[in-house]
Amino acid sequence: QIVLVSGHLDSWDVGQGAMDDGGGAFISWEALSLIKDLGLRPKRTLRLVLWTGEEQGGIGAKQYYQLHKENISNFDIVMESDEGTFKPSGLGFTGTAKARDIVKEIMTLLQPINVTDVYDTADGTDIRDWMRDGVPGASLRDDLSKYFWFHHSHGDTMTVQDPNQMNLCAAVWTVVSYVIADMEEMLPR
């Protein structure tokens, strides 16, 4: 059984892609690194996917989906960060009401950093096919007030990234992915 965390690596025409979506790739990598460094071994496999081809119609994700859809019942949740890694506020979530209640409970663990909101839907080109077929999905929600200052521009460089905000985003990704991967049962569908 698999808990998938992800971001995509492809930058668009002019910037370096540090925010869109290097930040999502980084926090996904960091989540798994933190779990490993803490010596935690969840009941399910945590899988990191660094998508490519998202800007070209999600072709990397479509290929991955085609290769793995026969095992769709083993995917517990698919998580994608693709809207920057600014100050986080919570998760967008797509899934059943019972699964949403579980995710809301998990998010209470993040009250010390004031990141507890669960929004109505998850977004993400790379996880869309999975969610369409009933796999619960989550996307990071953060402060988008500066996102379009840099999105697909020459300004999308590492200088956009705030290490403290990225650490908060990585904390959200780490807690949510680990707790779901270590639950007794998969999220209800």
Automatic annotation (TrEMBL):
GO function terms (MF aspect): carboxypeptidase activity; metal ion binding; metallodipeptidase activity
GO biological process, one term: proteolysis
Gene3D superfamilies: Zn peptidases
A Pfam family: Peptidase_M28
Localization annotation: Endoplasmic reticulum; Golgi apparatus; Lysosome; Secreted
Domain Peptidase M28: 2-173
Keyword annotations from UniProtKB, A to Z: Carboxypeptidase, Endoplasmic reticulum, Glycoprotein, Golgi apparatus, Hydrolase, Lysosome, Metal-binding, Metalloprotease, Protease, Secreted, Signal, Zinc, Zymogen
Similarity comment: Belongs to the peptidase M28 family.
Subunit structure: Homodimer. The monomeric form is inactive while the homodimer is active.
Protein name: Carboxypeptidase Q
